[in-house]
Design a protein that fits this description.
The complex is a heterotrimer of chains A (203), B (260) and C (537). By secondary structure, chain A is mainly α. Chain A has helices at 4-10, 12-43, 45-54, 57-82, 86-116, 133-167, 176-201. In chain A, helix 2 (12-43) packs across helix 3, helix 4 (57-82) packs antiparallel against helix 7 and helix 5 (86-116) packs antiparallel against helix 6. By secondary structure, chain B is of the alpha+beta class. Chain B folds into 2 domains: 31-215, Glutaredoxin, CATH 3.40.30; 219-247. Chain B has 7 helices and 12 strands. In chain B, helix 3 (76-90) packs across helix 4. With 537 residues, chain C is mainly α. The two termini of chain C are 20 Å apart. Classes of the chains: A mainly alpha (203), B alpha+beta (260), C mainly alpha (537). At the B-C interface, helix 1, helix 6 and helix 7 of B face helix 4, helix 6, helix 7, helix 8 and helix 9 of C.
C-alpha cells in the first residue's frame, strides 16, 4: 500500500489535467482586461487608435520573437530531459530564463520611454484626460504589467525546475513537473501573442 | 536566509496595503465628494420659476431635499425627477409643510421658463396636492451654481451633448447643513423620510454607499453594445467549457490504458 | 472491522502520528480528512464571529437612533458581516469541509488528486480570512461586500486590504475546485461510473467548475480595483473616461454563479440524506445530476438581473428576467425529486432528516420570494428594501446554512466517530427554525412596507416588526450556540458511533468511523448505484 501522494505523483494524466485547468483560470484572468479593452474600444475608437500608434510595434515584435524563441528552448529542454540528457536540459533552461529576462529588460525600456513622455496613469500627459487615451494606457500598463508578473513567476518556476533537474528529482523517467513548467511558460508566451496584436497592431 | 527574513518581508508587503490611500483626486470629476456636516452657501442667489431672485438661506427654514438637474437632459435627470416625484407622492410627511424640495439646474443657460415647465410636469406627476412653494425649481448664474455644487461636492462635466453627472440627492437641515446623501436614481419613500427625520433632529449620519448611477450624455444608444459584448463573451465561455467537458470525459476512465 | 469499531476512540485518521508532534500532525498534514477538520474548525469559528456581528446589528435596531453604535460603525459591521458570511462561510463551507472529507471516500480513492495543493489552499483560506479580519482592526471597509466602484476607489478606509483578502480567498477557492475536478476524473474506484457517483459528488463537481470559471474574473476585477487605487488606471473612474458600471458587470459575472456555488453543494448534501431516510432509491437521479450542471450553466448567464435599475435597456432587462426564471427550473426539479423520493418511501425520522425538512421548507420560501424579486416591475419597488435582505437570508442561511447543518448532523458520526445527543440537537433545531422565521419573516413585511436595507435607524411605523425580528435573532443565536456546543461536547465525550448509524449505502459508510488513515484497506470494486436499498444489494 503506497502513500496517497505517491499515487498522484505517478498519475501523469491527472497532473497534466490539473495544470491545464490552472492555465484555464489564468486565461480567464487575462480575459477580464481584454473584455474591458473591447468595451472601451467601442466607446473611444479614435483615441484607442491614436494611442495604439504611439506604442512601438518594433519593440513589441522583438519581444514576441524573444518569447517565441524561449518557448522553443523550453520545448527542447523537455525533449532533452526525455532523452536523459541532463546537461543539455540545464543549458536550455538557462537559455529560456535568459531570454525571459531579455523580454523584461526590453519591457523596462519600453515602459521607461512611456514614463518619460508622461504617458502613464496619473502622468502629466494624461492628466485630466477623459477622451479614452488615459483608459488605453491604464489598460496597457495593467495588462502588460500583469503579464510581466507572469513572466517573472515563470522564470522563478523554471529556475526551481532547473534545480530539481540538477538534484535529479526531475529525471528521464519522472519529468511531469518539467512538462508542467513548460506548459506554464507556453501560457506566458501565448498570452503575449494575444496581447501584442491587441495593443500594438489592431488599428 | 530568506526564511529568516520572511516574516519581515510579509509585514512589509502588507503594510503597503495599510498605507495605501487612493492616489487619484476626483474632486472635479463627475461624482459625489461627501461634505456631510458642512454648510451650503446661504447667500448664493438663484432665480425661482416665477422669476423672483432669492437667496438660498431665505428659501430654507425647513429641512430640504436638494436635487440637481439640467433641464435639457433627455435621460437620467428625468428618471431622477420622476422617481423623486413618485416617492414624494407616497411619503407620509407632506412636502411643503414638513420639508421642502429644491431642484437646482447646474446648467447656467437654463431659463426660468424651462424651470416653470418642469415644475408643472413633476408637481402633477407626484399625484398629491402640494403647495406651490413645496417644490422649487431654481436656475442661477455660474458663480452661484459653482458655489452650491462645490459646497455639496457634486461633480459634473460638460460634454458635447450635455453633461456627465452623478445621480444623488442631498438632504439639508433647516439651517443649511448637509445631513447626508441619498444615492441612486430611485428613492424609497422611507429612505427620504428617515433622512428628513435626521435633518429635523440635526443629526448628521453616514450615507449608505451603494453603486452610483451615472448619467453619461455621450452615449445616446445606452449600453446596448456592452450587453451584447458581454453576452457573446458569456456564451463563448459556455461553449468552451462544454467542449472542454466533453474532451475531459475522455480523460475520465480510470484504470484504463494509462500506466499507474 | 466492525468489532473494534464499537469502541472507536482516537482511532482511524485521528490517531496520533508517530514521529510527528500534535501541531505538526495537523498543520502539515496532507490527509484530506485532517484538512477537512482544519476547515471545519476555522470555518465554524468565522461563522460564529459573523453571527455575533449579525446579532449586534440587530441589537442596534432595538431602539431608534444610535443605540450601541454610530452609523459608520454599523456600515462597517454590515460590510464585515457580509464578507465573513459569504466569503469565509457560505462559499467554502460545504465543499471545503464535507467535500474534502468525503469526496475521496465516496468515489473510492485514498486522497484527492493533489494533497499538498489541498493543504496550500487551506493556508490561502486562512491568510485571506485573517486579512479580512485585520481590516476590522485598522478601520473597516464601509463599501458593502460588493466593493462597488466608484466608492471603493475613493473611500479612505482599508478597502485595498479587504479587496486583497477576497482575492486570496479566491485563489483558495480555485485550487480547491481544480483539485476536485481532477480527483473526480482520475481517482474513481473501478466500477464507479459517472452515473454511480453519489449526487453529492455531482454537485461538488458542478460547483468546482463554477469556481474554476468564475473566480478568475472576480480576481482580475479586484486586481483592477487595487490598480485603480494605487495607480489610477482609470477604467472604473468617470473622470478619466472610465465607467463604474463595468465593475458591476464583471463583479456579477462572478457573483451570480457564486450564488450557486453557495447553494449547490448544500443541495447535494440534501440529495444524499433524503434517499437514506426514505430507504428508497432517489427519484430521478439523472435529473438531479443534470440539473446541477444546468444550474451551473444557466447561473453563468444571469448576472444582469442585479442591475435592473442601473440603466439597462428594456430588452436586456426582459432577457435577464427570463433567465432568472430559468434558474428556478433546475432548482424546482430538485425539490420535486426530493419530495418524489419521500413519497411512498419508508421514512425513518431522525435528526438529519428533520434538518432536511427545515431546509426544503425555508429554501422554497427563499426561492419563491426570489421569483417575486425577479419579476421586473416589482423588483423596482422592492429593490434595496428589507425584502431583499429577507430573500437572500432565506436562500443563503435557510438554504445553504441549513443544508450545511443537515450535512454536519448526518456525517458527524462518521467524521468524529462519536454520536451526539440527538434530543438536544432536535430541540436546538426546533428553536433555530422558530428563531429563523421570527427573525427573517418580518423582514418581508418590513420590506414590503418600504424599509430600506443597510440602515442603522428606522421610522416609528416599523417599530413592531423590527422588535419581533430582534427577538427572533436572540432565539436564533441561542439555538446556534446550543447546537454547536452539543456537537463539541459529543466530539470529546460522545458515545462511540457505529460504522453506519443511518443505514446508508454510499461508500463512506462502508468504512469504519472515523475512517482509517488511507480510507480503504484495498480500493473497493463498485458494482451498484449509490442508493440501492434492496436487500442483499
Amino acid at each position: 500500500m503506497s502513500k496517497p501522494h505517491d499515487i498522484s505523483h505517478r498519475d501523469y494524466t491527472g497532473a497534466k489535467l490539473g495544470m491545464w485547468l490552472f492555465l484555464f483560470t489564468e486565461f480567464f484572468l487575462f480575459f477580464g482586461p481584454v473584455l474591458l479593452y473591447a468595451v472601451f474600444r467601442f466607446r473611444y475608437p479614435h483615441a484607442f487608435i491614436d494611442a495604439s500608434l504611439k506604442l512601438d510595434a518594433g519593440v513589441g515584435a522583438l519581444n514576441t520573437v524573444i518569447l517565441l524563441t524561449s518557448s522553443l528552448c523550453m520545448a527542447l529542454a523537455i525533449t532533452a530531459m526525455q532523452r536523459g540528457r541532463k546537461g543539455l536540459t540545464l543549458f536550455l533552461l538557462a537559455l529560456t530564463v535568459t531570454l525571459g529576462s531579455f523580454f523584461l529588460v526590453n519591457k523596462y525600456f519600453e515602459w521607461g520611454a512611456k514614463f518619460a513622455h508622461g504617458l502613464y496613469p496619473g502622468g502629466e500627459a494624461l492628466a485630466g484626460n477623459a477622451d479614452g487615451t488615459a483608459i488605453f494606457y491604464g489598460l496597457y500598463f495593467f495588462t502588460t504589467g500583469l503579464h510581466g508578473l507572469h513572466v517573472l513567476a515563470g522564470m522563478a518556476i523554471i529556475i526551481g525546475a532547473a534545480l530539481m533537474v540538477h538534484e535529479g528529482r526531475i529525471n528521464s523517467t519522472d519529468f511531469v513537473k518539467l512538462e508542467n513548467t513548460g506548459l506554464y511558460w507556453h501560457l506566458v508566451d501565448v498570452v503575449w501573442i494575444f496581447l501584442f496584436p491587441v495593443f500594438y497592431l489592431v488599428r | 536566509m530568506i526564511r529568516r527574513h520572511l516574516p519581515g518581508l510579509v509585514c512589509l508587503f502588507f503594510s503597503i496595503f495599510l498605507l495605501a490611500q487612493p492616489l487619484c483626486a476626483l474632486e472635479t470629476a463627475p461624482g459625489v465628494t461627501e461634505r456631510t456636516g458642512e454648510r451650503v452657501p446661504l447667500d448664493a442667489l438663484f432665480t425661482d420659476e416665477t422669476g423672483k431672485s432669492v437667496a438660498l438661506g431665505a428659501l430654507l427654514g425647513k429641512p430640504a431635499i436638494l436635487s440637481f438637474a439640467y433641464f435639457s437632459c433627455e435621460d437620467q435627470c428625468n428618471t431622477v425627477l420622476s422617481n423623486l416625484a413618485s416617492s414624494l407622492g407616497r411619503m407620509s410627511s407632506a412636502p411643503g409643510d414638513d420639508f421642502l424640495v429644491l431642484t437646482v439646474s447646474f446648467d447656467d443657460e437654463d431659463t426660468r421658463g424651462e424651470a416653470a415647465y418642469k415644475k408643472k410636469n413633476y408637481m402633477s406627476a407626484a399625484g398629491r396636492p402640494m403647495d406651490e412653494g413645496a417644490w422649487k425649481f431654481l436656475t442661477g448664474d455660474k458663480t452661484s451654481i459653482e458655489a452650491l455644487t462645490g459646497a455639496i461636492g457634486f461633480g459634473f462635466r460638460k460634454t458635447e451633448k450635455g453633461y456627465d453627472h452623478p445621480a444623488a440627492l442631498a438632504v439639508l437641515s433647516a439651517d443649511g447643513r448637509i445631513i447626508r446623501y441619498v444615492y441612486g436614481s430611485s428613492y424609497l419613500p422611507a429612505d427620504l423620510e428617515m433622512a428628513l427625520m435626521e435633518a429635523r433632529e440635526g443629526r448628521i449620519t453616514a450615507s449608505i454607499k451603494k453603486a452610483a448611477r451615472f448619467c453619461f450624455s455621450s452615449e445616446p444608444g445606452g449600453r446596448a453594445y456592452l450587453v451584447s459584448v458581454l453576452r457573446v463573451a458569456g456564451l463563448s465561455t459556455l461553449v468552451v467549457v462544454a467542449g472542454l467537458f466533453i474532451y475531459l470525459k475522455g480523460f475520465g476512465r480510470p484504470g484504463k490504458k494509462d500506466k499507474r | 472491522m466492525a468489532a473494534d469499531n464499537t469502541r472507536g476512540i482516537r482511532e482511524g485518521y485521528l490517531a496520533s502520528e508517530p514521529g510527528k508532534g500534535f501541531i505538526a500532525s495537523w498543520l502539515l498534514t496532507t490527509d484530506h480528512k485532517r484538512i477537512g477538520i482544519l476547515y471545519l474548525f476555522s470555518i465554524l469559528s468565522f461563522f460564529l464571529v459573523g453571527v455575533v456581528f449579525g446579532l449586534l446589528m440587530r441589537l442596534e435596531l432595538i431602539s431608534r437612533g444610535p443605540t450601541i453604535m454610530e452609523a459608520h460603525t454599523y456600515n462597517a459591521f454590515f460590510t464585515l458581516h457580509g464578507v465573513i458570511m459569504l466569503f469565509l462561510f457560505i462559499i467554502p463551507v460545504v465543499p471545503s469541509i464535507f467535500g474534502n472529507f468525503l469526496l475521496p471516500i465516496m468515489i473510492g480513492a485514498r486522497d484527492v488528486a493533489f494533497p499538498r495543493l489541498n493543504l496550500l489552499s487551506w493556508y490561502f483560506y486562512m491568510a485571506g480570512a485573517l486579512l479580512a479580519l485585520t481590516t476590522l482592526i485598522i478601520g473597516p471597509a464601509d463599501t458593502g461586500w460588493t466593493f462597488y466602484a466608484p466608492y471603493s476607489l475613493r473611500t479612505g478606509s482599508s478597502v485595498s486590504l479587504a479587496v486583497f483578502s477576497v482575492f486570496v480567498l479566491g485563489i483558495s477557492s480555485i485550487l480547491t475546485g481544480l483539485n476536485f475536478v481532477v480527483t473526480v476524473h482520475r481517482l474513481r474506484a473501478p466500477g464507479m461510473t459517472w452515473f454511480r457517483l453519489p449526487l453529492f459528488v455531482w454537485s461538488l463537481y458542478a460547483t468546482a467548475w463554477i469556481q474554476i470559471i468564475a473566480t478568475p474574473i472576480l480576481g482580475v476585477n479586484l486586481l483592477l480595483v487595487m490598480a485603480e487605487r494605487f495607480f489610477g488606471i482609470g477604467v472604473f473612474d468617470p473622470a478619466k473616461g472610465g465607467d463604474p458600471i463595468l465593475y458591476q458587470h464583471l463583479f456579477w459575472i462572478y457573483s451570480h454563479p457564486a450564488v450557486y456555488i453557495m447553494v449547490l453543494p448544500a443541495m447535494g448534501a440534501v440529495s444524499e440524506i433524503v434517499p437514506v431516510f426514505a430507504r428508497r432509491v432517489i427519484f430521478g437521479y439523472k435529473a438531479i445530476a443534470y440539473s446541477s450542471i444546468g444550474i451551473a450553466a444557466v447561473g453563468s448567464l444571469v448576472w444582469g438581473h442585479h442591475m435592473f435599475v442601473s440603466g439597462f435597456s428594456y430588452t436586456a432587462a426582459v432577457y435577464f428576467s427570463l433567465f432568472t426564471f430559468f434558474v428556478a427550473i433546475p432548482s424546482a426539479i430538485k425539490v420535486y425529486n426530493w419530495v418524489g423520493t419521500l413519497y411512498k418511501g419508508s421514512i425513518v425520522m431522525d435528526t438529519p432528516f428533520y434538518f432536511v425538512l427545515a431546509f426544503i421548507f425555508l429554501f422554497s420560501i427563499g426561492g419563491l420570494s426570489g421569483l417575486i424579486l425577479g419579476a421586473l416591475s416589482v423588483n423596482v419597488h422592492l429593490h434595496d428594501t428589507y425584502f431583499v435582505v429577507a430573500h437572500f437570508h432565506y436562500i443563503k442561511f435557510g438554504g445553504a446554512g441549513f443544508g450545511m447543518l443537515a450535512a454536519l448532523h448526518y456525517w458527524f458520526p462518521k467524521i468524529s466517530g462519536r454520536m451526539y445527543n440527538k434530543r438536544v440537537a432536535n430541540f436546538a433545531l426546533v428553536f433555530l427554525f422558530i428563531g429563523f422565521n421570527t427573525l427573517y419573516f418580518p423582514m418581508f413585511i418590513l420590506g414590503y412596507e418600504g424599509m430600506p436595507r443597510r440602515y442603522f435607524d428606522y421610522l416609528p411605523q416599523y417599530v413592531l416588526w423590527q422588535h419581533v425580528s430582534i427577538v427572533g435573532s436572540w432565539i436564533l443565536g441561542a439555538s446556534i450556540f446550543t447546537m454547536i456546543g452539543n456537537l463539541l461536547v459529543a466530539a470529546f465525550r460522545g458515545a462511540a458511533a457505529p460504522m453506519n448509524p443511518w443505514g446508508a449505502r454510499t461508500l463512506e459508510w462502508q468504512v469504519s468511523s472515523p475512517p482509517p488513515k488511507e480510507n480503504f484497506e484495498t480500493i473497493p470494486e463498485v458494482t451498484r448505484g449509490p442508493y440501492d436499498f434492496r436487500e442483499g444489494a
